[in-house]
Amino acid sequence: MQIGLIGAGSWGTALATVLANNGHEVTIWTRRQQQAEEITSQHTNRRYLPGIELPSTITATTNLQQAIEGKAMILFVIPSHSIRETARQATPFLSERMLLVHAVKGIELETHKRMSEIIKEEIPSALHNRLVVLSGPSHAEEVSRQSPTTVVVAADQIETAEEAQDIFMSPYFRVYTNPDVVGLELGGALKNIIALGAGLSDGLGFGDNAKAALMTRGLAEISRLGVRLGADPLTFSGLAGVGDLIVTCTSQHSRNWRAGNLLGKGNSLQQVLDEMGMVVEGVKTTQAAYELATSLGVEMPITRELYNVLFADKCPRNAVEDLMGRLKKHEMEDLAQN
Ligand SMILES: NC(=O)C1=CN([C@@H]2O[C@H](COP(=O)(O)OP(=O)(O)OC[C@H]3O[C@@H](n4cnc5c(N)ncnc54)[C@H](O)[C@@H]3O)[C@@H](O)[C@H]2O)C=CC1
Ligand SMILES: O=C(CO)COP(=O)(O)O
Asked: At which positions is NAD(+) bound (predicted)?
């Protein structure tokens, strides 16, 4: 199968290796000519996946039309803030036969919309039921080394998700289907907030107890907002919920954890973002989720405190004190509200 892949960052390139190893021909679109030449001729993408040799069936182009036209599947893997603009630019080259997949984890800051909502606003309506979301615990660095990984795909019609399952599934890349598009997208986006918090906690020198608390109570508030927005609560017990939360809060590969860690060690947000050089989705998602939760009256105390640390200059230790000092609660009553 011929596949067009929009985005030559770490996750796009890692997914390209999965698809190429499954026998597909992948054309990656990138904005940078030098990177396109490196991928096509040297079979590397050193800035984003150092030390990985790419299959020779992966090529790259800066021509969006060339990356899309005539392909059976188009895969979007770019930062969430650029999905609307990129989907709009891609639209003239899409055709009704194509399968569209996105693997982007974020919420649009200006509208608080999920990625599939945005893509649907930009593409022709005939393609709406061809759109699939791919999410789950999957760091690019490990996938590109063929380390066993499990992900989930969801679509409005389960048959569409099953098409994507067949294309991606491999001996080291196991793909589940799930009908819950809303839950998959929110699980993937909101866990990045908690991973920033986990990194911050580690950076402040707190221990595993604090991180376990953040992850568990983080999952409670992810579910609370998710269910309020129409997700199935069970999805958050799955790979795209607790699975992705675990890997992002504990892995050395997580950019969100690393960014939080640098913040906890006293760096400013701008210093951290300059140092990362890759997208840290959790920063914008913290703002979007905070605004969304506030407008809907959904309680998200960890998200609120992170918002205050990131955007209102609150000292992280005061944020922790305020989290710990909240009113007493019954755990079961609290969880039953979700
Ligand atoms: N890296 C990972 O392990 C995983 C990442 N993701 C998600 O995949 C998405 C992409 O992340 P990564 O590939 O890791 O990011 P990255 O920072 O490694 O690469 C982003 C790529 O998008 C390009 N880009 C940036 N702004 C753009 C714009 N305005 N228009 C077009 N292209 C633009 C960059 O040049 C770069 O090629 C994010 O939503 C992330 O949360 C999901 C699962 C795993
Ligand atoms: O979503 C991811 C792993 O599943 C990647 O997380 P980071 O963006 O924090 O690296």
From this structure: 7-12, 140, 255
